[in-house]
Every structure is written in C-alpha cells, then in structure tokens.
Amino acid sequence: MGDDLGDEWWAHEDKSDASEAEEETQQEKQPTEKAPKNTKTKPEKRKSVTEGTVKAKKKKNNEQKVSNIPPKTETDDDKTTKPKRKRKKKTITDVLASSEPKPGCPADLQSMVTLYFSDKRSVIEQEELALQDSSFLSCNDLTHTLSSFLKQVCPKWSKIQKQHKEKSSVVLLIVCSSALRAIDLLKQMTAFKGEAKAVKLFAKHIKIEEQVKLLQKGVTHVGVGTPGRISALIEKDGLSLKALKYVVLDWNWRDQKLRRMVDVPEVPLMGKVKPGPLARRPDNSAFKQQRLPAWSPMLTANTVLPFFYFMALICMLLGVWLLLTVQSTQELKLDYTEAGTCNLCFEKRKNVSRAAQPCICTVVFNIKKAFKGDVFFYYGLINFHQNLRRYMDSRDDAQMVGRKNNLKSPSSYCIPFEKDKNGVPIAPCGAVANSIFNDSFTLSYMASSGSEQVPLLRKGISWYTDKNIKYRNPSTENMTLPQVFEGTAPPLYWQKPVYELDPLDKNNNGFINDDLIVWMREAAFPNFKKLYGVLYRANKPFINGLPAGNYSVDISYNFPVQYFRGRKEVVLTTLTWFGGQNHFLPVAYLVTSCLILLIAILLTVFWFKFGKNGQNMEE
C-alpha cells in the first residue's frame, strides 16, 4: 500500500525528494500567473509514430505563445527564501520501519523494578527483589512453553490449588497488555491449569461489577488480565492479594505497534500490580519503617559521669546482697563414687556380667553445723551429657502422655531402644528412659542413743505441670496397671517394669512416677544434680532441720559411671528465695560494678585534664 502524496507514484519513481519539492512549489505558483487571452490550453495526448509531425508543429506554436508571456523578475525575498518541503504523510508501516524497538532483556525489567522501589524499600528489602535467571522464559526458547515454564516455577501446583479456599483472590496472576493476548495465554496454559478455575480480568465487553460478582461467587485459582482492570479491581476490593503466591508479567510481548506492556503510556504498570511478598510487607509509613523523629540526649560530663558512678553503685549493692544470700545457704557435697565401701561396688560394676548383682555400700560423713529449715537431698552426676541432641530426641512424648496407640507402637525417634530383642515394644522407649539413674539411698543419723533413719519425702518432688499434664498413664478402663502395660517390655537396662517402680505406693507407678519424671527432664550442663527427696520435719530431732553430728548413707550401688569417666555424689542443701548455693550471679554483678567504676574514674581523669578548664582534645 503506497503513501497518498497527491501525485501518481509511477510518474516520480526516479525523482529525488528535492525535485518533488520544486515541482510542488511551481504548481503552487502557477495559479498566480496570468496567461494571455489568446493562449489556449490543449489536453495532453499520448505520442504515437503517426502523429509525430503534427505534434512537432503544435510544439513550435506553443513555444511562441509561451514566449509572449512577460518574464517574472526575481526579488530579494525569493532569493533568500527557500522552497518549503511539504510534509509527507506517513503510514503505520513507515513508523514501524523507522522506529523498530530492540528486544527487552532481563536487565531491563530488573532496573525498572529497582528504580520503582528504590525510594520505597530499604536496602535489605531491595536485595530480596533480585530476579533470578529461572524467573524468565525466553521468547526464542522453543523447548519450553508457557505450561512447562509454569510447572517449573510452581512444581506443587496441584497441592496449592487444593489448599486455596479463599474467594475474591487468586493464587496465580498473569498480567498482559491486551485482552486478545490474555485469551491467547489462557489457551497456552491449558496443560498446566488442569482443574483449576481461571478468570479473565480485562475490560473488553466485561463490566467491572460483573467481574467482582464472579470473583465473590466461587474460588478462583488463576487470573489473567490487563493492568488497568486489575488495578481497578484491587482499588474496589474486588480482588484480594492475600493468597497471591505467583505473579507472571508478559512484559516483552509486543502488539501490532510493537509496544510492550511497559511501553503503553496509559499503563503505570509498577504502581498497579505488586508481588505477593511485597504486598504483605508493612506499609511505607514513618512509624512502620522506623523513620519517626527521635530524641537523643546530649552526652556531657555532667550527665555521663554521675550515671556511671550510679550504675557502679547499683551493681555493687546487688552483688553484695546476692553474695550474702548465697552464703546464708548451707550445702554439703559427698562424692561416693569410690568412697568408703563403695570402692568394691565400683569395681564390680566394671564387669558387665555382674551388673545385675546387687551391691550395697556405706559412706560416713559429719555435719559440723546444723542445717536449719527445709533440707533437700540431691543426687549428682559429673560428666554426664544429657544435652546431646540425639539423646534428648530419643523419647516418645506421645507415649509418655498415655496414648494407647503409641504404647505398643513407639516413635521411630526411640530407635534402637524402640523394641527388645524379641520385637516387643518398650515402654517407656528411648535412650533417656533407658539410662535412668537407679541408685537408691537411706540416710541415717548416728545419735548418742543409737542410729536413727532420717525420714525423706519421696513424693511431690517433680513439677506440678509434669506430674499432671506432661506425663500421664494410659486409661485403665477397669483394668489394673499391669494389665494396661501387658504386651510391653521394660527398657533394656531396667531391672523391673515401669508399673513396679514404687512397690510402697501404687499411685506412684507407671509414667507418673516421680523419680522417672525428674530424670526425664534433661539437664543443660554435663554436671548437674536432681532432687531425690525432702526432709520430713514432723518428728524429733528433725523438727528444725538436720542437727549437727555424724551421719551415714547406705547406697544401693547400681548406676555405672566408669564408661563415660563420670562421678557420682550426694548433695544436702538448704534453699532461699534465690535458690541453692550458686556464686555465679553475685560474682558477675561485683565484676561488672568494678569495670563500670574503673571506666568512670578514667573518664573523670580525662575530663579534669582536657575538658574542665575549657581545653579540648585538639590542643
């Protein structure tokens, strides 16, 4: 299709643009010139061989007639003014040929995103906006289609579409430049979409009220539309971005005018569609982005130095107070690993073949100062690491809470202490329960009248929440506890089943046994102590506590420690509001107060030397 310039295109094929302009100016001047009356214009005829002589005569007559026209003199204005070139009418083809755009690359989109969010996001948030190479589908890649690309981007699409239950929202949003392109993309993603419901979000022949009702009517998974309509739906709360997980921009596809979606001037793209992660970020307000005006004190010597001295005084007073509190507690530690007659039991436990044989030893000790008030009896272990991850995970909390399904089907975390050699499930399972501390103690007071056993309360030594919530026996349902645990085996290192741990109290057996609960609460450090009993102060001479004198403790020596190079001990102590005897916190406060005081003194010296008399550090 040619350009309409007023002349026949075949008559000017060889003419340049300048000659065309001259002819156009001459045609404009001809109406202004007056021809004589005797001048006759004759129609132009085609040349032929037979009429050659006749036309030659007419040509001479025409030359004579034209010569009678007076010549027009050139003026200075005609010399200076050049003929104006008439603007040629352009077609769409000419525009596209002269302004053919280059294909866009991923860097263009990355720079556009960075430019838009540069003043709206922090530096750390802008780093999260980096687009990976896997986020782009090349138009020239014939090995991938839109469906295959979406399968790579969202490999768990079938699971995501089943979990999506929100109305007026989509999981996948595809933004394109026109309605025709949106329909084309819907056809291309048929293989990927599957049973998911898709909706068209463009303005062609569809009113926005109809689209809002359509989105509210049911669950929609995929939305394909233009930025203008998507923006209008978001502004009218017709489309929610809460469930949005994936955004696909068809930004490099060009229409008939070779304009991409980002080249259309009517579409401010980056202000319309925001990806899901950015939409869920806090607003770009001064409060939520921590840009509110702040108050900062003026640091001067008159304010800093008194503050340092005051803090040093506070820390020192707290340290002295805590130190006096700790020193008011009484504590006695007795290492019985190889003490007294326990040396024979220690050697006996080295032999695994004699591990089941009982061994009882006695250790004698003296209390020089009476323990007043409540006295707590602990057993302690040294170099026993209960804080190892695999050790702590080797347990079944569902079994310990009394679930019958887990009673005979322990968790895989208990392996290899899940079943015994005969395949019978172990209750309680795991390495923690299997390594329970099984030494027992009997404390005696050797008075002048004779030896007297010290009464210890063995119940109520565990936490209330552990006893009543975390650990529960399976429901008996008119059955005894042994019948409930029928079909299970005790841990490998246990000498009796879990329902016989306390033969003196039937309500202290099973998973709610106090000794078992205390042991199952793992210690954070390799050296620890656990509560064994509390002094019963109802009878004399233990009403006020433990009197001074000689004592003996009879130990049923069962727990071996030589395999992990550990030690065992007995701890007798009193408690205060601060707890047991622990010097760490008082010493920490005292050391901190000394450091603050030293810094305060140094700052005072510098101030007297450089700042008090108006001098500064630059002199």
Automatic annotation (TrEMBL):
Listed A to Z, the keywords are: Membrane, Transmembrane, Transmembrane helix
| Positions of the UniProt region annotated as Disordered | 1-104
Where are the membrane-spanning stretches? 307-326, 587-608
Q: Which cellular compartments is it found in?
A: Membrane
What the entry lists under Gene3D superfamilies is as follows:
P-loop containing nucleotide triphosphate hydrolases (3.40.50.300)
Q: Which Pfam families match?
A: CDC50 (PF03381), CMS1 (PF14617)
Going by the entry's taxonomy, the superkingdom of the source organism is recorded as Eukaryota
Extract one GO BP annotation from the record.
phospholipid translocation
What are the Basic and acidic residues biased-composition ranges? 9-18, 26-36
Q: Which GO terms describe its cellular component?
A: endoplasmic reticulum; Golgi apparatus; plasma membrane
PANTHER family assigned to the protein according to its UniProt record, in alphabetical order = CELL CYCLE CONTROL PROTEIN, CELL CYCLE CONTROL PROTEIN 50
The entry sums up its family as follows: Belongs to the CDC50/LEM3 family.
Q: What is this protein called?
A: Cell cycle control protein 50B
